[in-house]
Amino acid sequence: MEHALALFGSFDGNIKIVEDAFSVTIVARGTEVKISGDPENVYLASKTVEGLLTLIDKGEAITDQRVHYVIGLVREGTSDQLSSLASDVVCITAKGKPLKAKTLGQKKYVDAMKNNTITFGIGPAGTGKTYLAVAMAVRAFRAKEVNRIILTRPAVEAGEKLGFLPGDLQNKVDPYLRPLYDALFDMLGPENFQRYQEKGNIEVAPLAYMRGRTLDDSFIILDEAQNTTPEQMKMFLTRLGFNSKAVITGDITQIDLPDTKRSGLVEASKVLKHVDDISIVYFTEKDVVRHRLVQAIIKAYEKYYDERRRRD
């Protein structure tokens, strides 16, 4: 019965999504579920229900976003891979919540970070690129695989000019680095974060301050890498020292550099795609784990730009 309650959701909301997606009728009689409609649609709906039950077995909460994701996998014929999801806890947050990959793209990304020295995570907003990278950094730090976590991003404004900000250097760069702080607060809690930062175990700094350094025994994350120039990207990648890992994240559809500047992330993804021990993982709108509307927005923009390119 617990499985049935989790599957159907509040006011049968989850099952209604499946019914609408495949034009079928789903009725529960005790612990039995009957699906009726067109044979092919019934098959797809049953595969969706099986996929959702796989996630429930692994202790995953079923939200409408999860239901839509499983429906997408069933339509593609890749729902059999669901059993690999939610099997591995990436990190335990400060509140004791286990953090797991929520999509197959995220699972591929986590595995790439485990198995490679340098990992690129490229894809749209809301796919968990930064959050999962910070989680892997905290995991490595807690396991004493590294001595330091270094988080950096280029100080490029997203269209707005922040002007002269008050305070010392840290106060001036903090607005650029806020998403990294938010992720660290979630993983470690504000008190632990403060303590590790004072001891030098955690460093959050703009990319310009990486020049001339060699970073040993560190887990280094470069966020918003689409806003690096090719020179900055090469400078960052050559900071890597012994027993270190680097993760570079970015969204090549949101470049805030002046039009005349090339993106270092775009160039690096072409230059390094065949280099051993470097993995490049691409996310799609299906990996978005924010509000479902974010997926629709990304799709709409992609369609608009594709049509504009064709016209041009």
Overview features:
312 residues; alpha/beta; Ribosomal Protein S8, Chain: A, domain 1; Rossmann fold; six-stranded parallel beta sheet; two-stranded antiparallel ribbon; 16% strand; globular
Descriptive account of the structure:
45% of the residues lie in helices and 16% in strands. The protein is α/β, with parallel strands linked by helices. The chain has 2 domains: 2-84, K Homology domain, type 1 (Ribosomal Protein S8, Chain: A, domain 1, 2-Layer Sandwich), CATH 3.30.1370.10; 90-311, Rossmann fold (3-Layer(aba) Sandwich). Strands 7-6-8-9-5-10 form a 6-stranded parallel beta sheet. A hairpin with a 5-residue loop joins strand 3 (89-92) and strand 4. The model is unreliable at 158-162 (pLDDT under 50). GO terms for molecular function: ATP binding. It comes from uncultured Anaerotruncus sp. InterPro entries: P-loop_NTPase, PhoH, PhoH2-like.
H/E element string?
A: HHEEHHEEHEHEHHEEHEHEH
Helix coverage percent: 40-55%
Beta-strand percent range? 15-25%
CATH superfamily of the largest domain: P-loop containing nucleotide triphosphate hydrolases
GO molecular function, one term: ATP binding
Keywords: ATP-binding, Cytoplasm, Nucleotide-binding
Main location: cytoplasm
Pfam families: PhoH
Summarize the structure.
With 312 residues, this protein is an alpha/beta fold.
Helix-strand blueprint:
Layout: H1 2-8, H2 13-22, E1 25-29, E2 32-36, H3 39-57, H4 64-76, E3 89-92, E4 98-100, H5 104-115, E5 118-122, H6 129-142, E6 148-153, H7 169-188, H8 190-199, E7 202-206, E8 218-222, H9 230-237, E9 245-250, H10 264-271, E10 278-282, H11 292-311
Parallel strand pairs: 5-9, 5-10, 6-7, 6-8, 8-9
Antiparallel strand pairs: 1-2, 3-4
Helix pairs in contact: 2-3, 2-4, 3-4, 5-6, 6-7, 7-8, 9-10
GO cellular component, one term: cytosol
Protein name: PhoH-like protein
InterPro entries: P-loop_NTPase (IPR027417), PhoH (IPR003714), PhoH2-like (IPR051451)
